[in-house]
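Bug #77: duplicate submission created two jobs. Keeping one. Sequence:
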Amino acid sequence: MKAQYLGHVVFYVKNLEESLKFYRDVVGFQEVGQIFGGKAAALTSGRTHHELLLIEVGDVPGPPSGRRRGLYHIGIKVGDSLDELRAAKQDLDRAGISIGGMSDHTVSQSLYLQDPDGNEVELYVDAPEVDWKRDPKLVLAPIKPLVL
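Kept job's structure:
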């Protein structure tokens, strides 16, 4: 077996509409449709049938903060240039979404934030001038601060 790519992520969410406002209206996924009597929605970037499925579970405990086993964050590519990342930051600022961190990973540059349920989301752009396929060790380069 050989993995081809990560196909999709499924999140349990407190409020489907709030999560759709974030992932659809701010981040820019397209809603494919809703199922389970309107309690779940599939979203896509257009790369595949769905990359994200949101299932409303109501007011149950959310993810614990801090270091723990399990999912740390998901990464969503939003472009290939720092200008596109700057535009994403402006969209987040207009939507009133706080950015928790910004990092330069050499192969990519990233913004870190939380979705309405407290899940960490990395919005990133690839650095087109960095050929990580030719030099895979670049993926492990020290993380540097990013200033936009």
